[in-house]
Design a protein that fits this description.
The complex is a heterotrimer of chains A (476), B (250) and C (228). Chain A folds into 2 domains: 259 residues, Rossmann fold; 77 residues, no CATH class. Helix content of chain A is 53%, strand content 11%. In chain A, 58% of the residues are buried. Chain B has 250 residues and is of the alpha/beta class. Classes of the chains: A alpha/beta (476), B alpha/beta (250), C alpha/beta (228).
């Protein structure tokens, strides 16, 4: 997976100065955390459902090979085809072949993070196939040539005026000449344009929120209706998704339906939840004649049997993003990856590589809010810590950091030396800058503290040395 | 030396309190003594190992953890005035030492003996504080204390019993941006977080911002001071122990 | 072959003992039993309460609901909702032989595939009260796109087909034999909050959803028992 996560620091610094982005992130955090809280409070069984979801996912992962085989069997029994793609390139080629074999010229796409991950659309377009994103947020960023900044609401970093400018710039050639400033009008214009695309598409490509092994069913959760129009109108439907999406039964799917929209957008359910099982049946009035499912590995199997396996439970709800003070401070683009926020901090080093993505698991205070609200109880901070351990072991982090930590730990293990060193240090600090209560400048990396805040001057003598003195007085 | 008949509690000072704000440590001692305990401060304590643990240096974190366990296991109660150090010992040591059967067991035993101060004062002691001079306070829930040790009501209960009115911020549970080395590795983001926290505290109308972790306290206090606000920031132990609060210093 | 390569990789990572037959048994058991997990208590109530719950949820999502005692007055209700309008119906509704021709204000147009419509009237399999979700399925009498290409979507719902929980629907589908190509839960009009987090209706599907609940609750309905 291509990432620019190495640029996290400069990207996040510009993000912090972008007042329009800051406003959007503020709104996102407030709205979605409040909405989630309300719907969770209204469902007494929520915690139990979280436990069940975690357990179903763990069971499935422990039997992943068998559930994938069962899913494939069912899809084939319904006349569909399943392809197993180990890499992004294999997945792209498979989809391209399917499109070319059906002479497809026009493709509509409903939202799929996996297709963003493998950069499918540029591949199709490079081969002369028009591929239009139909999820409104994805459509907007496709026009702008941007990556998604959020795994559920890809254009959340934009305000209405930015969307208006984008539509005005790109829709003029289609005969739409008005610059719109009303949200409803913007949605209506996109509706009109994309309606034509839906009706004329040769191939519809979707992702999958879940795959049901029992029946060979693909579950799609949306609000716009674009998934249903993408998958029922063209003659070919291609599903592109990760191998970890499979769950055993329709009853198991019900657990996740109860958790997903509540966690993602603070609604009991999305406007549309579709369960798609293959191609059109005899007599059906619409639906594709050809049904294909591309199951992607691309590094996922590498997490099985490792300390990262828990991450494969992720259902891409984005609740962790909405509650993460780091994500809400800098937005998704700063992460340089299609997967951002806490879940992206764990997934990106795996699907890309640790060297490129090391900032992501490091840029966390481990506040634990993400783990607190994750519907499938992924211990995200713990997994980020595992990445930090790997980073340390591979010596990818800074020499200063590694030696600083080594030195600190050595001092810890020799209390007498520790006391002498720290005692001298605080005595020195307490004498700097006359008798002001606060220091406003510190040297070295500590200068990053005083860049923005003062440092309450140490009292001058350590507790331990004062205690020793007091105890000597008492004991005499 | 006379043998005390009092119950004994061992104090885990924490490296921050030891080095930067020993006054908080003495407030903790006052409270424990007022609760009828004699306080022992084992000499061989230094740090709980969190910087190494969270900094990707598991091997050294293990060494420090074993040392802490050796030093503190002999005691019946161990009290620490920090949710993050308390959480490190209670929650993380058993995980960290999962592959060391001897020390894993010891870590679990130690976990049962370790109490964060407000938990000790409300759950073991039923401490009744004297009146504090600060009238209206707002409380910042330090992350590890809140999420690892479930500290939420305990400090508030104690402050109310001491006569303070709690006025809540709009988001008391949101991280202040300290995060150990995070604040110096990602200073711009940390600054944004502590700025938000500071404004939230100011908007609460409180006379003081209170918390239970010195890292958070130094972070919030330093930011408020840099930005010219005179809202003081205290560890709840200081208020409960009637530590002299020098408003004039700000 | 990429399938065997991928699955081999999965098995290696999971440290599978190929001779272990208990794993396949565990998978077969789980699928064959398709046990019901936790069902929220709000989904396990008496039928009249479920009907009210369905209406409450779906109207909260900005659909509108009308209740009529019998299908005899459904044309009036549809006309009352649409006013003077063109509209289409799906084959399921056609089979009901409703007297649309007696209504001057309504102009019934034949349905054409891949064509937008002013309004479309369809039936549904039923509805799930716990989240206010209509359940539609693809068939020879109902094209999925017929539920999505109208500006307005009117759904006729027999009260007795309202159930409390999703699991009751899956059970009905199992009893019918095979899965249709598409089962969709429709829980409101099409909408998006992709611009500044504010919900706008009519993203790609119908702008308006109107549900006409017909008839009364059955007397013999039993809510799903709690199994855990």
């Amino acid at each position: 997976m291509d990432v620019i996560s190495k640029d996290f620091v400069p990207l996040s610094s510009s993000a912090l100065k972008d007042s329009s982005l800051q406003k959007s992130m503020s709104l996102l955090g407030e709205e979605l955390s409040t909405r989630r809280k309300l719907v969770v409070e209204a469902l007494p069984e929520f915690e139990q459902l979280r436990d069940e979801a975690r357990d179903v996912k763990n069971h499935t992962l422990a039997h992943l090979d068998l559930y994938l085989e069962r899913f494939e069997e069912q899809v084939k029994a319904n006349g569909g085809q399943v392809y197993f793609a180990s890499t992004a390139e294999e997945a792209r080629q498979t989809v391209l072949n399917i499109c070319q074999q059906s002479n497809a010229k026009r493709v509509t796409k409903s939202k799929s993070m996996v297709t963003d991950e493998i950069e499918l659309v540029p591949c199709l377009e490079a081969n002369g196939i028009e591929a239009v994103e139909t999820d409104l947020g994805e459509y907007i960023i496709q026009l702008r040539g941007e990556r998604p900044s959020h795994i559920v609401a890809p254009a959340v970093h934009l305000n209405k005026d930015q969307v208006s400018e984008t539509f005005f710039k790109h829709h003029r050639k289609l005969g739409f000449n008005a610059k719109l400033d009303n949200r409803a009008d913007l949605v209506a214009e996109a509706r009109q344009i994309l309606r034509e695309k839906f009706l004329l598409a040769d191939v519809g490509i979707s992702g999958a929120n879940f795959l049901v092994a029992e029946t060979g069913t693909v579950v799609l959760v949306t609000n716009e209706g674009n998934a249903e129009l993408t998958t029922s109108l063209p003659d070919t439907h291609v599903v592109v998704t990760g191998i970890e999406k499979v769950i055993p039964t329709m009853e198991d799917a019900s657990i996740f339906i109860r958790l997903l929209a509540r966690s993602a957008v603070g609604a009991d359910i999305s406007a549309y939840t579709s369960f798609i099982t293959g191609q059109r049946r005899e007599g059906d009035l619409d639906g594709p004649s050809n049904f294909h499912v591309v199951l992607l590995d691309n590094g996922r199997s590498g997490m099985l049997g490792t300390e990262f396996q828990d991450m494969l439970r992720c259902i891409r709800c984005s609740a962790c993003l909405h509650h993460c003070p780091v994500y809400l401070s800098v937005g998704g683009h700063a992460y340089g990856s299609v997967y951002n926020g806490p879940m992206g901090a764990v997934l990106t080093p795996q699907l890309a590589n640790l060297d490129e993505a090391a900032h992501l698991p490091n840029a966390s205070t481990f506040c634990g809010k993400c783990e607190e609200i994750c519907p499938v109880r992924i211990p995200l901070p713990k997994l980020m810590r595992f990445w930090r351990n790997k980073e340390g072991a591979a010596k990818l982090n800074s020499l200063t950091m590694r030696w600083g930590l080594k030195l600190w730990a050595m001092l810890n293990q020799y209390p007498l030396i520790y006391r002498a060193v720290t005692g001298a240090g605080v005595a020195l600090l307490s004498r700097i800058g006359s008798d002001r209560r606060f220091l406003n400048s510190l040297p070295g990396i500590a200068g990053n503290w005083t860049k923005y805040r003062d440092f309450g001057r140490p009292e001058g003598r350590t507790f331990m040395s004062q205690w020793r003195e007091r105890r000597r007085g008492v004991d005499d | 030396m006379t043998k005390s008949h009092q119950k004994e509690v061992a104090l885990f000072v924490t490296c921050l309190i030891d080095n930067v704000r020993p006054g908080i440590g003495f407030s903790v001692v006052t409270l424990l003594e007022q609760s009828g305990y004699s306080v022992v401060v084992p000499e061989r304590q230094t740090c709980c190992g969190q910087p190494n643990y969270n900094g990707g240096d598991k091997d050294n974190a293990l060494k420090v953890a074993r040392q802490v366990i050796d030093v503190f296991l002999p005691y019946e109660y161990v009290v620490v005035a920090s949710g993050s150090c308390g959480g490190m010992i209670k929650q993380h040591y058993p995980d960290l030492l999962a592959d060391d059967s001897e020390y894993r067991k010891k870590a679990e035993q130690l976990a049962d003996k370790v109490y964060e101060l407000s938990c000790f004062l409300t759950e073991v002691v039923c401490f009744k504080p004297e009146k504090t001079e600060v009238k209206k306070v707002t409380y910042h829930d330090a992350c590890a204390g809140l999420r690892e040790l479930k500290i939420k009501d305990q400090p508030r209960q104690l402050l109310k019993q001491a006569g303070a009115e709690i006025v809540e911020m709009s988001e008391p549970e949101v991280c202040c941006g300290f995060g150990g080395t995070f604040c110096v590795k990602y200073p711009d983001i940390s600054n944004r977080m502590v700025e938000k926290k500071g404004l939230d505290a100011l908007n609460s109308g409180a006379d003081a911002l209170v918390s239970g972790d010195l890292g958070c306290i130094l972070n919030m206090e330093g930011k408020l001071h840099r930005d010219g606000h005179d809202l003081p920031v205290y560890h709840y132990a200081e208020l409960l122990a009637q530590a002299t609060v020098k408003k004039g210093d700000y | 072959m990429s399938k065997s390569r991928l699955l081999q990789q999965v098995r290696a990572r999971l440290n599978i003992n190929q001779g272990d037959l208990t794993r396949q048994q565990a998978v077969d058991d789980r699928i064959n039993q398709h046990a019901v997990n936790t069902v929220p208590i709000q989904a396990r109530q008496s039928h009249p309460i479920l009907v009210d719950l369905f209406e409450e949820h779906i109207t909260q999502s900005r659909a509108t609901v009308a209740r009529i005692d019998s299908i005899d007055v459904v044309v009036d209700e549809i006309q009352g909702y649409l006013g003077t309008s063109e509209f289409c119906i799906n084959a399921e509704v056609e089979e009901l032989n409703l007297p649309f021709s007696e209504c001057d204000e309504l102009t019934l147009l034949p349905w054409k595939p891949k064509t937008s419509m002013t309004a479309c009237v369809t039936l549904c399999l039923g509805a799930v009260a716990e989240t206010g979700s209509l359940v539609i399925a693809s068939s020879a009498l109902n094209g999925v796109s017929q539920n999505f290409l109208g500006e307005k979507h009117i759904v006729l719902l027999q009260a007795e087909n309202i159930v409390g929980a999703y699991e009751e629907m899956w059970q009905k589908v199992r009893e019918a034999g095979t899965m249709p190509r598409d089962i969709t839960l429709i829980s409101g009009p099409s909408c998006t909050a992709d611009i500044e987090m504010i919900i706008e209706d009519g993203a790609h599907g119908p702008r308006q959803l109107h549900v006409i609940i017909i008839g009364q609750s059955p007397t013999d309905y039993k809510p799903l028992p709690q199994v855990r």
